């Protein structure tokens, strides 16, 4: 059986822990294990220990990704403002203004209790001629406006109405998104009061500010950028996202806003989103919980020199599709790297499954398992917990041919402990900030990959203090 590619050389060897340690012991020792790992590794950048720009008291994730340089994207202007949804001083309102004729498509949470902004966007994008001339996007952090009934729906409508008046468009041409505490009706007057100032500050080069403005328990702003060609003409793709906890597929708990200056029909945008969301935003998990507000919106301003694309199967979209996938996957990975309390970025790959759906279910079971995630936090390659997570799915698995690797290190093969298992090498590998777990269930030819993070005391502390 072929081993997966080897990653970078592991850190110095240290004695291992017992694979049979309990979940309580793993959590208790997490802090000490993390401290020892950071001391043994190359010193983290200063940003990893500095205060986060979002909620006070949080420190930037040690897996932080610097915000990229994003040049202006023709056809969109952005501004941020402080509406006052948070007690502390920070921008919590983001306004996008798009050129006339901008098209839009969205993918939303499958949560049965969707928020008022999700209902608003879904209704208007799915309606007749939906997404053909979207002029604005309003995003607020600090109040989810979810589980708020008619009052929440009215607040969303009034927000769209105020923006529509200022921009000379229909209410339906204004998209909305909210994130924050569930069960609190949005005070739309706070947004309306800031619209004049925000409109005056609209500029093409405010992506970083927008990334900060949508943060909740995020510890760093998340952005991505790519360029590609459509029929030989250069187009740009830029995006921001937020998300740190309550993250699980369908969709991962997040907001993501992606803008391109390409000219693309909304039906084509929708098809592209549906194709790529499955292997990006719907393939990451932090805690297995899905939000009421998950929203991914893709806008195409049509301001580039590239020709308009009106057919889903147009071959001129090949380069664009690949670039869009890179942006979406980059943002999805950043969500995991900023997982609440995370210290490890974990890639789980399942091979040899009976079907793609089976492979995905198996990979997600491993990635969501608290026992697996706490073992990783404690730097323990407890592959018995991986076996547990695989078997509980009731998916087709050949027990006597099952194989498991942690990075290049074979833990199990042919349904039994590997004869080449080396505890010292395995323990050394588990000190890395990035961990690969590969499982072959020997039941077919399908594969799937899910990205996750470890589960530490930090997750409990952040969520125990979420509303204060």
Description:
- Helix content is 31%, strand content 21%.
- It is an alpha+beta fold and 468 residues long.
- Strand 8, helix 6 and strand 9 form a beta-alpha-beta unit.
- The strands form three sheets. It has a six-stranded mixed sheet with strand order 13-12-11-14-10-15. A five-stranded mixed sheet has the order 3-9-8-7-6, sandwiched between helices. It has a four-stranded mixed sheet with strand order 1-2-4-5, sandwiched between helices.
Chain-wise SSE layout:
Elements: H1 23-40, E1 76-81, E2 93-98, E3 103-108, H2 116-126, E4 136-143, H3 149-167, E5 174-181, H4 188-200, H5 207-213, E6 222-230, E7 233-242, E8 255-260, H6 266-277, E9 295-300, H7 318-337, E10 345-353, H8 356-368, H9 370-377, H10 383-391, E11 403-406, E12 409-413, E13 416-417, H11 423-429, E14 434-440, E15 446-453, H12 457-464
Parallel strand pairs: 4-5, 8-9, 10-14
Antiparallel strand pairs: 1-2, 2-4, 3-9, 6-7, 7-8, 10-15, 11-12, 11-14, 12-13
Helix pairs in contact: 1-9, 2-3, 3-4, 8-10
What keyword list fits this structure?
31% helix, 15 strands, five-stranded mixed β-sheet, alpha+beta, 468 residues, single chain, six-stranded mixed β-sheet
Q: Brief description of this entry?
A:
This protein is of the alpha+beta class and 468 residues long.
According to DSSP, the number of beta strands is 15
SSE ordering: HEEEHEHEHHEEEHEHEHHHEEEHEEH
Q: State the secondary-structure class.
A: alpha+beta
Strand order in the sheet with the most strands: 13-12-11-14-10-15
Q: Average pLDDT, to the nearest integer?
A: 86
Biggest sheet: strands, sense, closure? Answer: 6 strands, mixed
Number of helices: 12
């Amino acid at each position: 059986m072929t081993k997966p590619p080897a990653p970078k050389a592991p850190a110095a060897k240290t004695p291992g822990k017992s694979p049979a340690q309990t979940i309580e012991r793993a959590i208790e020792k997490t802090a000490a294990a993390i401290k020892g790992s950071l001391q043994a590794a190359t010193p983290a950048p200063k940003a990893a220990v500095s205060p986060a720009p979002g909620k006070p008291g949080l420190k930037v994730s040690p897996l932080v990704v610097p915000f990229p340089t994003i040049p202006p994207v023709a056809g969109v202007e952005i501004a941020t403002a402080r509406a006052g949804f948070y007690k502390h001083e920070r921008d919590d309102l983001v306004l996008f203004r798009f050129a006339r004729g901008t098209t839009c498509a969205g993918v939303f949470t499958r949560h049965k209790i969707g928020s008022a902004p999700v209902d608003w966007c879904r209704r208007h994008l799915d309606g007749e001629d939906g997404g053909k001339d979207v002029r604005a996007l309003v995003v607020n952090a600090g109040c989810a406006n979810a589980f708020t009934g008619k009052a929440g729906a009215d607040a969303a409508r009034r927000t769209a109405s105020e923006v529509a008046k200022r921009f000379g468009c229909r209410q339906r041409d204004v998209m909305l998104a909210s994130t924050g505490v569930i069960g609190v009706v949005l005070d739309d007057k706070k947004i309306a009061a800031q619209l004049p100032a925000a409109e005056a500050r609209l500029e093409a080069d405010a992506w970083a500010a927008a990334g900060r403005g949508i943060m909740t328990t995020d510890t760093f702003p998340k952005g991505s950028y790519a360029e590609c060609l459509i029929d030989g003409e250069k187009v740009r793709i830029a995006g921001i996202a937020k998300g740190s906890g309550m993250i699980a597929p369908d969709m991962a708990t997040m907001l993501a806003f992606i803008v391109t200056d390409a000219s693309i029909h909304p039906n084509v945008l929708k098809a592209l989103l549906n194709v790529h969301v499955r292997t990006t935003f719907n393939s990451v998990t932090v805690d297995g919980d899905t939000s009421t507000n998950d929203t991914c919106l893709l806008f195409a301003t049509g301001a580039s020199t590239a020709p308009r694309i009106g057919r889903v199967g147009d071959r001129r979209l090949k380069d664009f599709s690949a670039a869009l996938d890179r942006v979406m996957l980059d943002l999805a990975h950043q969500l995991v790297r900023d997982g609440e309390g995370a210290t490890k970025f974990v890639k789980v790959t399942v091979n040899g499954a009976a079907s793609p759906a089976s492979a995905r279910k198996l990979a997600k079971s491993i990635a969501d398992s608290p026992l697996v995630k706490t073992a990783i936090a404690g730097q323990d390659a407890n592959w018995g917990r991986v076996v547990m997570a695989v078997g509980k799915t009731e998916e087709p698995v050949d027990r006597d041919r099952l194989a498991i690797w942690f990075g290049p290190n074979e833990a199990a093969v042919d349904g039994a402990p590997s004869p080449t298992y080396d505890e010292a090498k395995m323990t050394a590998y588990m000190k890395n900030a990035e961990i690969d777990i590969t499982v072959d269930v020997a039941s077919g030819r399908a594969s799937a990959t899910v990205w996750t993070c470890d589960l530490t005391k930090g997750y409990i502390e952040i969520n125990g203090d979420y509303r204060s």
